[in-house]
Request: fold
Amino acid sequence: MLEIRDLRASASGKEILKGIDLTVHAGEVHAVMGPNGSGKSTLAQVLAGHPAYEVTGGSVSYRGQDLLELEPEARAQAGVFLAFQYPVEIPGVTNAYFLRAAYNEIRKARGEEEIDSMDFIDLLEEKLKLVEWDSEIMSRAVNSGFSGGEKKRNEILQMAVLEPTLAILDETDSGLDIDALRIVAAGVNKLRRPDKATIVVTHYQRLLNYIVPDFVHVLTNGRIVKSGGKELALELEARGYEWLEDAVGAAS
Amino acid sequence: MSSSVESLVNKEYKYGFVTDIESDVTPKGLSEDVIRLISAKKQEPEWLLEWRLKGYRGWLKMTEPHNWANVTYTPVDYQSISYYSAPRTQKPLGSLDDVDPKLLETYTKLGIPLSEQKLLAGVVAVDAIFDSVSVGTTYKAKLAEQGIIFCSFGEAVREHPELVRKYLGSVVPASDNFFAALNAAVFSDGSFVYIPKGVRCPMDLSTYFRINSAETGQFERTLIVADEGATVSYLEGCTAPKRDENQLHAAVVELVALENASIKYSTVQNWYAGDEEGRGGIYNFVTKRGKCAGAHSKISWTQVETGSAITWKYPSVILQGDNSVGEFYSVAVVNGRQQADTGTKMIHTGRNTRSTIVSKGISAGRGQNSYRGLVKVLPKAEGARNYTQCDSMLIGNRCGAHTFPYIDVQNSSSSTEHEASTSKIGEDQIFYLKQRGLNTENAISMIVNGFCKEVFKELPMEFAVEAQKLLGISLEGSVG
Reply:
């Protein structure tokens, strides 16, 4: 589904991704872990097409398409979803209005008809259950005055509605208490399907107790330095990241 | 990629066409003779001519206000403007059937229906002003059944002189300010509304202003009187052809609300704004003021200002009646080289008077947007309250937003509250929406409409839809 080859990217002239290789197949969950400043979030943002990052080399193929050629909205319409680490607030725009607009853009891109607000409400009712939420949240302005946990939950709700093919969760666990973490993880797990894939970007192993990955990759200093199964996450939890950085430092 | 929000194509100003119609235009220039000529053409009574001359003589002693408004332009040459222009076919109109087909076609093109459709819910009665004259008013007969007077100003002077004489200049005197005095001297036509005691006007009333002729100014005057317990909602729209020269629009609107009366006045202003280099466009120098003369009366201004090269406009309320309410909801958009200095004055003189000001300024391109507001509480205004919220949004790096709030409180039992914010549409906000599948244009439109929501919800439904569309058009090509 996704093939990243020697991906390099920089921000304000500073190289952050220094050659990433990663292959994700349908049905898989990949965890990308690493210390602060290793480039995890940059990878997520670059895949979504954030304009602050410049891709300086390498390629990303998504379902046979050159992902890097596409505008961010075209990536979204093609099924790439980024759950943001810091979801922005859009004052004055209700969650329901925003979500329906997004949902309809994606339907249009698939050649499907737009959905009217009555049908959309039915759909929402069902999706709200996934994140154990009351419909009251839909009449509030997008993320405005939401707590950190509500913002993250809102990201998962959007994901549930938009049904992406490739979901990238950028530190969705940060700032969540244990209950919110459980709800968010349960939401993600219910959306796991053989034809879809998920990349979970996280600093801590904690989230991976709930969302069990098929593969774990460790990113340090802009490169993937180690890949393994879910047990690698436990090893990282026990030993930290330093031993890997030391190993890389010694090798280079 | 940092230019991802650039390069949207500028949409053409949709209303920039000219109607080819023969017009009766007075020679350029302003003098007592010109004023006498206008008054004579309109067959006005002597008292009105005197009133005009009073305005003119006052105006001669005043200077164009260049020192305080935050706008820059070359002073207007008042001798190079024609002060009266009327389509030549204009006869005393028996009915709408007598209106020149070319004029009807113009309004059809503008999307303003001048035919009275079968009465459906949500119809609006329209007075259509073309250059200096009213070319038709719809639903007049229907409204007259309830004693409502809705007609052109000229007709009101002929048919209801006692009402006009009583209220004309009672809120904006002939020599109030430079542009109001000029208007008093040369005002051509406008709308007149009188809602009798206890009557709730059954439909929205609306005036549609169209400037057509070149090198003329438009100086309309609108007077709305809501008698005791009356209610009316009034809408105003405006467009003009695209021309390279600036054209002056100096209008006056006076509102009078008697005891328990309520007037809601909504404007969507879309005069031609000039081109990207700032050539041409309308100078919109307008005095709008309402007086809550009676106790428990209410006046509410809602404006969406997207057009004009320069806007200079402060719809105000004098809160004279005890427990009266004044409101001002405004969205002002500047793009290209547009400049706007707009806001309101709330003058509290009565007891327990309340006012609310919500101003949303959006600056894009090289536009300069200023909010200027005065909240004045006089010594007798026991318990007066004001709430002001003033938000600015910047799109791009070359525009400006300015705020000039003045608060003058002379009564210690009153309370005033002022909140202000300035935000910039961030790349992050746009990216967030794009990541959910919206293109840049729709993303900006969604953010801006959200920003303006508190004002849009005050507009009548059909106007709100229009305003949202207009905002989308005004801001296209603005992001960089």
Notes: Helices of chain A lie at 40-48, 72-77, 95-109, 117-130, 148-162, 178-190, 231-239, 242-251.
